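Subject: for your reference before the review

Hello V.,

The reviewers asked for a structural picture of the protein, and I figured it would be easier to keep everything in one thread rather than splitting it across files. Below is the amino acid sequence we used in the manuscript, unchanged from the supplementary table.
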Amino acid sequence: MKKSLFFAGLLTLSSLCFASKSYEVTLANTTQAGAVQIKAGSYRVKVNGDKAIFTDVDSAKEYTVTVKLQNSAKKFEETRVDATNDGKMDTLKDIQLGGSTTEIDF
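And here is what came back from the structure prediction:
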């Protein structure tokens, strides 16, 4: 019983640590992220459930986007943004979160 309680506490603690972690990304162009358009600039990205919250480093303006989380078999070495460009605007495909096994899909 004590082991089960210990592991439940450990799992809760690790979930809280992940929820409070933010990742730095820079968007070179105005970017479509799901249904939200985000201006070019530097952002902190934080995951909260099925939402990614982009906070502008300069203005503190927040953009919230519904996302799908994927887990990789191994940790990503660095945070990497994958986007496409249709000639007018970038469109986010995914963000791999450095130091974790989590990928955010848009």
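For the response letter, the relevant points are probably these. The mean pLDDT is 86. The CA atoms of residues 7 and 19 lie 18 Å apart.

Happy to draft the paragraph if you're swamped.

O.
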